[in-house]
Design goal:
Blueprint (H helix, E strand, L loop, with lengths): L2 E5 L3 H14 L2 E5 L2 H10 L4 E5 L7 H10 L5 E6 L4 H9 L4 E4 L4 H14 L16 E4 L4 E4 L2 E3 L3 H12 L4 E3 H9 L8 H16 L5 E5 L3 E5 L5
Parallel strand pairs: 1-2, 1-3, 3-4, 4-5
Antiparallel strand pairs: 6-7, 7-8, 9-11, 10-11
Length: 230
């Protein structure tokens, strides 16, 4: 599986970045300092490092330079609030492969990561485990859901909720995460919206005779689990 190391000390930036890459199918490790990042890549094979320049302690440029000096051969994508051309040139001179200025869109970040993986000969999409016939299958590129040979027709929000649950199959996904991922943190409406969406989603899965089911975990969130006899 393709491994991405995120080196970012700001939680509000790191969290959506990590969850987006995980939903793409990458193994994502996040650290909050340059020293820890260098220790990690020294002992773990890493395909892409997404590196913030404004780190506490050791600056991102120094991390980039030391990573190359210690033999790191993976791709390095620098992200920074510094927008000057000089910073970009210096970053590339220090061994970075690409440069992305904050604020950036997550779709652009995904595209940059895929491009870097193509350049380094790594698979642009992480390999997915083989699905059993009694499991839902997600076509993320087309935003379509299949069960066996039949498509389960969903609205955009229903698809987004199910996509997250499938990616975390067997694990509880909190209500807060679903609201933040699907309706974003600026949503000021009632969280009943999530319950209504879950209710419609359950009905559609049952109507398509899907063996998997969405289970509510009281006071926490929801979990997608296999059939009762699985």
């Amino acid at each position: 599986m393709t491994r991405v190391l995120v080196v970012e000390d700001e939680e509000d930036i790191a969290f959506p970045l990590v969850r987006t890459l995980e939903r793409e199918g990458y193994e994502v490790i996040r650290v909050d300092s340059g020293e820890v990042a260098l220790d990690f890549i020294d002992g773990h094979e890493t395909d892409v490092m997404i590196l913030d320049l404004g780190l506490p302690g050791m600056d991102g440029l120094e991390v980039c330079q030391k990573a190359r000096a210690q033999g790191y051969a993976g791709a390095i994508l620098i992200v920074t609030a510094r927008a000057g051309e000089l910073d970009r040139v210096v970053g590339l001179d220090y061994g970075a492969d690409d440069y992305l200025s904050k604020p950036f869109g997550l779709a652009e970040l995904q595209a940059r990561v895929r491009a870097l993986l193509r350049r380094t000969g790594q698979p642009a999409v992480a390999s997915q485990p083989e699905r059993r016939p009694d499991q839902l299958q997600i076509d993320q590129a087309a935003r379509r859901v299949f069960y066996g040979d039949a498509e389960v027709m969903l609205t955009g929000k229903e698809y987004d909720v199910l996509d997250i649950l499938v990616a975390q199959r067997g694990k509880v996904v909190s209500r807060d995460r679903l609201m933040a991922d699907v309706w974003d943190e600026n949503w000021y409406g009632s969280t009943k919206t999530l319950d209504v969406t879950i209710g419609r989603l359950r009905a559609k899965l049952e109507g398509s005779e899907v063996a998997e089911r969405i289970v509510a975990v009281r006071g926490v969130g929801f979990r997608l689990e296999g059939p009762p006899d699985a």
